[in-house]
Amino acid sequence: VAIDVKSLGIVFYPAPVLRQRAAEIDLSRGVSDDVRAVAARMIEVMREEEGIGLAAPQIGLSWRMFVVDVPKNEERVERGAGLSPGVMLYTDGPVVYINPKVTPATGEITPYDEGCLSLPKITGHVRRPDAATVTAYGLDGEQFTHSAAGLLARCFQHENDHLDGVLIIDKMSEIARLKNRAALRELEKRAGVR
Ligand SMILES: [Zn+2]
Fold first, then answer.
1. Active site residue: 24, 75, 142, 159, which one?
2. In the chain, which stretches have pLDDT less than 70?
3. Taking the model in full, what pTM does it have?
């Protein structure tokens, strides 16, 4: 493995890597050991930080890959019973999405208070469709599709935004942006000394 994955940790706003469009991962020879090691490290960091999702740019790699782990709970199981079969509300364990293509559903847009591991202390309502589908490659190199609703669908969209250099502060209401202004400035100030 050419990458020292243990050295990879959370990258904070305003790091330039968070604003880049990430590059597709070359899968022509299958999933490389580097990609595997990075995915494992991403899962480790996500757990350490108690996050439900993490995109590769958030550990400093401009790669199109994210990991998601939305736990099963009673509310999600109950809501799932009312949805079409196959629509996921939780992952019940970490899932790796390589070169994902996320398609948000048309229809109901819901606001939800989102946070981001790269933007500590910043939260605000972000409006997104309540459902989304992701087609991606797994660590086995096989393509798969997940259709989701609720928090999991939101998570797909949030993580996919990271691969396009988009952050929640770009999508928040003006009020939320004002509320977070001091915290954002603080992060910008700290950027030089990290
Ligand atoms: Zn984020």
1. 159
2. 1, 192-194
3. 0.95
